[in-house]
Amino acid sequence: MLRERSLLVSALLDRQPELHAEWMAELRASGSQKDLRIGEADLKAQTGELLRLIGEALSQNGSGDVTAPEWKAVRGYLNEISRSRVHQGFESNQTATFIFSLKKPIFARVREAAGNNTDLLASQTWAATELLDQLGLHTMKAYEKSREEVINRQQEELLELSTPVIKVWDGVLALPMIGTLDSARTQIVMESLLQRIVETGSAIAIIDITGVPTVDTVVAQHLIKTVTAIRLMGADCIISGIRPQIAQTIVHLGIDLHGVLTKANLADALSVALKRSGFDVTRGGATLDARTESDGLGASTGTNGSQPAVPPAARRASSGSRAGAGA
Amino acid sequence: MAERIPILKMGDFLLVTIQVDLHDQMALRLQDDLTMAIERTGAKGVLIDISALEMVDSFIGRMIANISAISALLDAKTVVVGMQPAVAITLVELGLSLPGVHTALNVELGMERLRTAISQVAADARLEG
Fold first, then answer.
1. In CATH, what class is A166-324?
2. Is it the case that residue A323 has pLDDT exceeding 90?
3. A97, A48 in Cβ contact below 8 A?
4. Residue A58 is inside which H or E element, if any?
5. Residue A257: which of A289, A209, A300, A204 has the closest Cα?
6. d(C-alpha B89, C-alpha B83), whole Å
7. pTM tops 0.90, yes or no
8. Residue A194's closest CA among A304, A186, A51, B124?
């Protein structure tokens, strides 16, 4: 047994330069070299280091069990390679080929060393195959794990990116929602929005759902919950960006959005919000608030009744939109 | 004698600020005290500040709704102010959306709402008279 193993070990240890050169040739033939994502020098360093580590591990523990502690360095190095392959955007088969292309050179070495002893040749080839398969499988596992890490990280980033609460005016917050709304996201959105309402003392929050692809009963339920929570805190909520298809879906599903002020786009919502907080938006001399005059601003919640509009004299005549404080 | 929540009179309004964690007994006592105080003072508005309240359960949630409804029966408008985000989320998750309870972000805005509502009522009364 020892003698059989030692054949593979000696092939790896004594003929390392040849093995290395042949492996590189194999990789070149399989097209890895044409890839611009990894340079020849890098690849050479990686293959050289891996061969060295495998040789070391094999001489310490020749059982071919790559889960043994002696193989820790090899496993660690393979993990590292897999991770870098994932980041460089290599596909799984390319990563696997990296390891499996070592087979041919090793088999050639073994055949050379075995000479006419066919039994030895068969057993050694089998040992080499087993070893390389294990290493290949380990590489794939590491590749998958690295890939999952990337996906998880991106999901988290998406979650954070997708909940920006914007202060659009004094006392008016806007939250443009992008992507599908699920329970976890709604929870985060709700929390960050409510927190910002407390921090800024904003009386009006606009939730813009232009970027929400579909609205089903669950999403609507989440929206209603958020609106209710905002109302409980004493602020008002406007939902804007309801696209025609979504409006149709909402009605067809029989979702009750009564008591929730909805607007077709963010501009309309902002205009209502400004009016409610007593701001008067004008362009030059003409007023634009005639459009929003008839909007139902919630039966008893509106504070606009108590605040006088800006008298025309107070408006500074200029081109471009201008908002003057009410009260 | 158990702790009780002070009820302050400010003009036509009653001011209740809850600064401690509300137990069930305290909430019941508050309901009694407040009803009595509205009757005694003829207050037109009640402002309940719950900004210091960190935790609620369904009972407290229901008490808030009850107090508001009782005050409405006694012709006093109630505004609940300063609800914390966590409390609001809890109530919503408990399915208590407190319909009919008026809310405001802080005491200042709450007062303004009460004044507006009461002047509205007065104006309506004048129209009818």
1. alpha beta
2. no
3. no
4. helix A40-60
5. A209
6. 10
7. no
8. A186
Q: Decide whether A2-156 matches A166-324 in CATH topology.
A: no
ipTM value > 0.85 = no
Q: Return the domain boundaries, chain A.
A: 2-156, 166-324
Contact residues for A250 (Cβ-Cβ < 8 A; gap 6+): A215, A220, A242, A257
- Multiple choice CATH, B7-128, 3.30.750.24, 3.30.1340.30, 3.40.50.150, 3.30.2090.10: 3.30.750.24
CA distance A35 to A28: 10
Contacts of B117 in chain A (CB under 8 A): 300
Question: Given CA atoms A222, A225, A231, A232 in this order, what sign does their dihedral have?
Answer: negative
The share of chain A scoring above pLDDT 90, in percent, equals 13
Residue partners of A311: CB distance under 8 A and separation at least 6 = none
pLDDT at A308: 43
Size of the A and B interface in Cβ pairs below 8 Å: 69
B38 Cα to chain A: minimum distance (Å):
22
Give DSSP secondary structure letters for A145-158. Answer: HHHHHHHHHHHHHH
At the second CATH level, the architecture of A2-156 is: Orthogonal Bundle (1.10)
Burial class (CB in 10 A: 0-12, 13-18, 19+), A61: middle
pLDDT tens for A92-117 read 888 888 888 888 888 888 888 877 88
Enumerate residues 6+ apart whose C-beta is below 8 A from B57.
B94
Domain boundaries, chain B: 7-128
- The enclosing H or E element of A172 equals strand A172-178
Q: Are B89 and A198 within 8 A, CB to CB?
A: no
Residues 6 or more apart from A173 whose CB is under 8 A from it? Answer: A165, A166, A167, A193, A196, A197, A200, A202, A204, A205, A206
Nearest-by-Cβ selection for A201 from B106, B113, B117:
B106
A308 touches chain B (CB under 8 A): no
